[in-house]
Amino acid sequence: MPQLTWIIALIPFFPLLGFLLNAFLIRNERQAGLVASVMVALSFVVTIASMVILASPLTGQPRLSVMLWEWIRIGSFRVSFGFVFDQLTAVMALLITGVGGLIHVYSISYMRGDIRPVRYFAYLNLFVAAMLILVMADNLLLLFLGWEGVGLCSFLLIGHWFERHSVPPGIVPADAAVKAFVVNRVGDAALLLAMAAIFSRMGSLNFFPNQQLGVPGYLERAGELAFTNLDLGTFGAIGLISAITFLMLIAVTGKSAQVPLYIWLPDAMAGPTPVSALIHAATMVTAGVYLIARNHTLFANAGGTSGWIVAIGLLTAFLAATAAATQWDIKRVLAFSTISQLGYMVVAVGLGGYVAGMFHLLTHGLFKALLFLAAGAIIHGTHESQDMRKMGGLKDTMPTTFRVYLIGALALAGIFPLAGFWSKDEIISHAWFGAQNPGAAILLMLTSGVTAFYVGRQIALVFYGKQRDNTYHAHEPDSTMRNPLLILAGLTIIGGLLNIPGLHFLATYLNPVLEEREVVYDTGRIIGQVALAVVTLAIVGGAGYVGWYLYAKTFVQRIKLGKDDPLVRYLGDLWRGAEIGWGFDWFYQRIVIRPYREVSLFLGDVFDKQGIDGMLVDGPGRLVGRMAQSLRGAQSGFIRSYALMFLVGVVIVLGYFVFRS
Amino acid sequence: MIPTTYFVMLSAVLFTIGVVGVLIRRNALVVFMSIELMLNSANLALVAFAQARQDVGGQVLVFFVIVVAAAEVAVGLALLVAIFHTKRTTNIDEISTLRG
After folding, report:
1. How far does A181 lie from chain B, in Å, by closest CA?
2. What DSSP string describes A531-561?
3. Do B99 and A639 touch (CB under 8 A)?
4. A457-496: per-residue pLDDT in tens?
5. Is the pTM of this model over 0.90?
6. What is the ipTM of this complex?
């Protein structure tokens, strides 16, 4: 069925159409939500159809590709505007359109009565289109278009309530949007440099060879260029692949919110909650992991960078998990948790476990979307309160929400047999056995313990005890919001089947793209992996129970609005450090923002006003003016004095000629 | 026959009177008359030299000067009337709007 490959172009087309319709034609809230949801649903259907075509033996190709037009042609620099659809793209597109569709439906109810719902749905559709372009692009430049597109939509949606001066917990949406955009620029600049290096040394930005365009694919050339060096002049030389992958790593730390560029994600919670679920948990932030998986042939040949990736991932996972344990805001807990889980994925792909990373990406997309949407239901049901100190006892007033939240939370903690258990266990066992890196595995297990602790704490604070703020009556969400929650909860329960050890559906499916070695299960490995899983479960169960018990029983009387966490008494500054995200914001404030402001002030007030404007612009004017001032006296306007001058002049000239000889 | 020197001296005296008149009188009309005096002193010198050199060119030039002077007076008096209409004065010291 090669003649049917063009339908993959419809996958991003439908959300784009939805964006255009919502942006230019529709002015009505109901229609906007309906059109947006239907478009994403259509895209989902086309994705399934494309997967069927891809799997069909009649296709006879490793991947579906379609080139819409030649985008750029400057000498040998040729870029196509084309899409590819292989197994890696398929799972990403399935997540984006599937979870994205559910979130669209949820948004219809969540955004009811908002001041600008049509714009919201237009941006949401534009985001889905950009994200699909990102994962379907057949070259790095088109991927970058999607990469920037999702960043733009993130900016627009974080700032959805741009006119509000503060949303809980005291974030200014407009500032948060700008922060997300600016921090991401750092990573984007690195990605541009990586592209320049790839084109200059590999001669193409296309992932795969393109006969129509006559350009090779750079992914296959990674092996032959493994020992090429990039000459940096006075700075010596550096391995080409290492340089490229390191630049890509910087891009990943920006988009996927890793240390040291993670600071924008907690503030991004200023956007509406479904946006947090779709963009800042399930899809956009996983773009970095996708980038590494897509370029895995480069990363496989860059030994130097792998260590950095693993280190950054581990640091992020651990620091963000501790930060999540100290937050009071229900969405901020989930934001830091997302950062931490992204750290897991980055560790996995850094250690070469691309399948494990993708597996965790998928399950995390499911259960974190579920958690965010359930948190949205709680925020909705408690009349826009996000502070967990105002909640408590919601187990009885919101039973359905409690159950789905519990499923998501246990999956996040990694409790058997929910989705998170399988994917997290896959990463830990890959680190220990596959990559022979027990240190990383132990740190990940510790982080799992911290994860379970904050999950237990959050469950206890929100759902157990007594309602601490009695100014509202919590209510359950309506069915438009509840059904997506139930579907996601169901998927979270069975999600582990995707890549269950022994069968490894996902690994088999992704094998044509990622070419990962099949895990050989001898007796030692089985025993080791089971032992690892049991130990992890014990840590997780213990830490989770401690977290729950402390906040549901021991401290329940001491949690008050505006008061510190009871644990501050025992942990002191450690707790305070975690609470501010280990001071990265403070650091940037001191090291980057304040000097930048000072320099800007100097340039604006002193250099520009006095230097450029004062000396270079006004200076010549003043000089001419002053010179003219001294000559003005001669122009008295008295005709007689002019005549006298004239006479004197004539006398002088005549005198000269008379007395010359 | 009166020597040419006398004519030239008279011409110089008349010219000097004209120059002094232009420089010290404030009434625009008198300034005009002084200018005419200077022109005519030059005419006198031209005619005297023409007589002395037996050359008719000098006399022809005098006619040109008279014609140009007539035109100049016509324009100058018209300007003077226009200025008097607006400024109500012929004092040239009060007409100093070109002052820098």
Report:
1. 58
2. HHHHHHHHHHHHHHHHHHHIIIIITTTT--T
3. no
4. 999 999 998 888 888 888 888 999 999 999 999 999 999 8
5. no
6. 0.84
